[in-house]
Amino acid sequence: MRAFLFANPAAHSRSPAMHNAAFRHAGLDAHYEARQVLPEALADAVAGLRQADVLGANLSLPHKEAALPLMDALTPAARAIGAVNTVIHRDGVLTGDNTDAPGFLEALRTAGDDAHGTALVLGAGGAARAAVWALRSQGREVLVLNRTYDKAIALTRDLGGVAVPPAGPVGWERVALLVNASSAGLDAPHESPLPDLPRLAPEALVYDMVYKPAETRLMRDARAAGYRAENGLGMLAQQARLAFQAWTARDVPITVFLDALARPVRPEGTE
Ligand SMILES: NC(=O)c1ccc[n+]([C@@H]2O[C@H](COP(=O)([O-])OP(=O)(O)OC[C@H]3O[C@@H](n4cnc5c(N)ncnc54)[C@H](OP(=O)(O)O)[C@@H]3O)[C@@H](O)[C@H]2O)c1
User: Fold this and answer.
1) Which of 132, 145, 149, 228 is the most buried (most CB within 10 A)?
2) Ligand 1 atom, smallest distance to 127 CA
3) Whose CA is nearest to atom 10 of ligand 1?
4) Is residue 164 part of a domain?
5) How many angstroms separate the alpha carbon of residue 225 from the centre of ligand 1?
6) How many whole angstroms from 165 Cα to the centroid of ligand 1?
7) Are the CB atoms for 233 and 263 separated by under 8 Å?
8) What's the gap in Å between 106 CA and the centre of ligand 1?
9) Among 31, 25, 42, which Cα is nearest to 94's?
10) What residues does the Shikimate dehydrogenase substrate binding N-terminal domain cover (predicted)?
């Protein structure tokens, strides 16, 4: 059996390491391969998933939104968020799912979040949409703060929550969960989406979806101020575990995925 990642670029991805470790752990004769797929080749690549020996695929940048009309069916999460990160193939039928959202909630739970209290999401792109949808499904108050205010307004119009104007009052002291779903800090150890971290609720959790570097400036600032802080590796592993489960009906322990992420990337960058 086979499963794929379609992305552009694709060579840097850690998904093959996670899924091939999970296939080995489950004793399944299957292989996961990352393929660089250009936007104009996405429809053909997706059509190829209907072959009998294909379990499905993950989609990453820039394909998560573009794949929606190529699916035969969508899960409620994928439809509401407007993005597909996992395609499940069964008997020629392709179902588009979004495991980023439940993977994010599972990672929060593991990090000690109690699913209560006001959450503030930084960013308004695809990752922020998954986070807001997931947090709203917990019935939480969700604030969205983005560099470009209009995008935060559009996001909250679609998914609920309240867009906060960048220069306006936020009420930071009631924020029990701060989520960085922006790209700020990615591959930039000195960059933070909040260069002056405001005072949050006592015991607040700061969850940074960025995981490169493993400790971001936002995490460092949060820990220095006495808050808990986690990077996005847990979410990355959990979304993979849930995709694997959807393809194989096997629940491989999260440690298998996390251990695969902890191993160094092979020199050719294609593990
Ligand atoms: N851990 C995981 O499993 C996981 C999963 C998905 C994504 N992610 C991470 O989440 C981040 C966002 O991904 P995405 O797919 O949502 O990207 P995206 O759709 O391109 O959105 C990027 C967002 O970041 C904001 N932004 C970019 N640079 C910024 C800066 N210097 N300061 C403040 N805001 C900035 C953008 O603001 P504007 O609207 O103003 O442009 C936009 O809201 C990435 O770092 C990605 O690696 C992690």
Assistant:
1) 132
2) 16
3) 181
4) yes
5) 24
6) 18
7) no
8) 20
9) 42
10) 5-87
Sign of CA dihedral 153, 232, 217, 178: positive
By the 10 Å C-beta count (0-12 exposed, 13-18 middle, 19+ buried), 183 is classed as: middle
Per-residue model confidence as pLDDT tens digits over 221-240: 999 999 999 999 999 999 99
* Spatial CA neighbour of 19 closest among 6, 1, 33, 9: 33
Distances (CA, A) of 209 to 76, 127, 140, 242: 23, 8, 19, 17
- Measured from CB, residues less than 6 Å from any atom of ligand 1 are 100, 123-128, 146-148, 151, 181-184, 186, 193, 209-211, 232, 235-236, 239
User: Which residue among the candidates 19, 63, 64, 129 is catalytic per the annotation?
Assistant: 64
Q: Are residues 226 and 134 both part of a single domain?
A: yes
The residue whose CA is least distant from atom 47 of ligand 1 is 210
Helix (H, G, I), strand (E, B) or coil at 211: coil
User: Residue 219: pLDDT above 70?
Assistant: yes
Q: Are residues 205 and 255 in the same domain?
A: no
Binding-site annotation: residue ranges:
13-15, 60, 85, 100, 123-127, 146-151, 209, 211, 232, 239
> Probe ligand 1: pick from 180, 183, 242, max atoms within 8 Å of CB?
183
Q: Considering only CA atoms, which of 13, 25, 101 is closest in space to residue 57?
A: 13
Q: pLDDT, tens digit, for every residue of 11-39?
A: 999 999 999 999 999 999 999 999 999 99
The Cα–Cα gap between 256 and 25 comes to 8
pLDDT tens across 123-166, in order?
Answer: 999 999 999 999 999 999 999 999 999 999 999 999 999 999 98
Q: What is the CATH number of the domain that holds 166?
A: 3.40.50.720
Whether residue 212 lies in the annotated active site: no
Residue 205: give the domain boundaries: 102-231
Q: 57 with 108, same domain?
A: no
